[in-house]
Amino acid sequence: MTKVIRTISNDILVENICFIPTMGSLHNGHLSLVDLGKKTNLKTLVSIFLNRRQFNDIKDFENYPNQLDSDVQKLYDRGVDYIFVPEEDYIYPSSGIETVSPNEIGRVLEGYSRPGHFEGVLTVVKRLFDLIQPSYSVFGKKDAQQLFLIKNMIREFNLNIQIIEGDIVRDKNGLALSSRNNHLSSTAKLKASCIFDSLLKTAESISSNKDYEEAIKEGSKNFVKNEIVLDYLELVDTENFKSPSKYSKKLKLLIAAYVENIRLIDNVDIEL
Ligand code: AMP
Questions:
Q1: Which domains are present in the chain?
Q2: What's the Cα-to-Cα distance from 231 to each of 121, 200, 226, 228, 263, rounded to whole Å?
Q3: Residue 19 contacts residue 138 (beta carbons within 8 Å)
Q4: pLDDT for res 133
Q5: Counts for the chain of helices (H) and strands (E), in that order
Q6: Spans in the chain with pLDDT lower than 70
Q7: Residue 166 Cβ contacting ligand 1 at under 6 Å
């Protein structure tokens, strides 16, 4: 039986929990994480909390889609054990909440473009971990830098939480599902679907060409041709999120781009 809860009580703390954090406006990407969580056979707890602190742009926060009733229904249908919908002052009481700052990787890419974003993310995730004390927690690879920083935080604080990583779920045209896609017009959606295509093409030329800079320069042209405004298109070593060295074996090609003013992110893995 699914329960909607506002606070974490002691009878939840005695359970072994698999925790799936979300900001709501759920789509099949989120639900795929729920399915991964359910495979642990632990009690699943999904949080729906729109975390103001991770929005560097207040307009983005205010415009973020909110569809709590249909979210709750989707989670009921999925057989989640607990749907945690906290009030803001439960997550952030007036004192005693530790702010968690990211290391230097939190200041590049998303961190560079969205100052304060990762501090907001790590602070809320740590707060939720402290409240829920899960054994497992599931995160999507769509937010690759976020996932990297959360795994770092777990090591840094020595938390006893296993992370499960969910693959990126896409629509039939390849566009990575995102709550922000709700804001895209149908033409914008079509334009946005070439993001994945161009990422794959660029990834292919990176793995065959080895002149990364040239491949990225060429790849960028594809996006521009399709009226996609690049914020960044960058390659990192998956192990450390730094520029690849000659020893790098696993790379990640990451993009952030605007389609009709909606900011979208995506990434693909490259094995050398
Ligand atoms: P959000 O609600 O955007 O904070 O996302 C909650 C979780 O869902 C995060 O771990 C995201 O990485 C993950 N997520 C978002 N979109 C996708 C997707 N298309 N495929 C898989 N996971 C996703």
A1: 3-166 (3.40.50.620), 179-271 (3.30.1300.10)
A2: 20, 18, 14, 9, 9
A3: yes
A4: 98
A5: 11, 9
A6: 210
A7: yes
b/e string for 113-129 if b means 16 or more Cβ within 10 A?
ebeebbbbbbbbbbbbb
Q: H-helix or E-strand containing 207?
A: helix 194-209
Looking at residue 102, what DSSP letter applies? -
Whole-number Å distance between alpha carbons of 71 and 100: 29
> In angstroms, what is the span from residue 217 Cα to ligand 1's centroid?
29
The predicted-structure confidence for 150-195, as pLDDT tens digits, reads as follows 999 999 999 999 999 999 999 999 999 999 999 999 999 999 999 9
pLDDT at position 264: 97
CA distance 123 to 229: 30
Separation in Å, CA 236 to CA 33, 108, 148, 233: 25, 11, 12, 10
Rounded CA gap, 222 and 213, in Å? 15
Give yes or no for residue 270 CB within 6 A of ligand 1. no
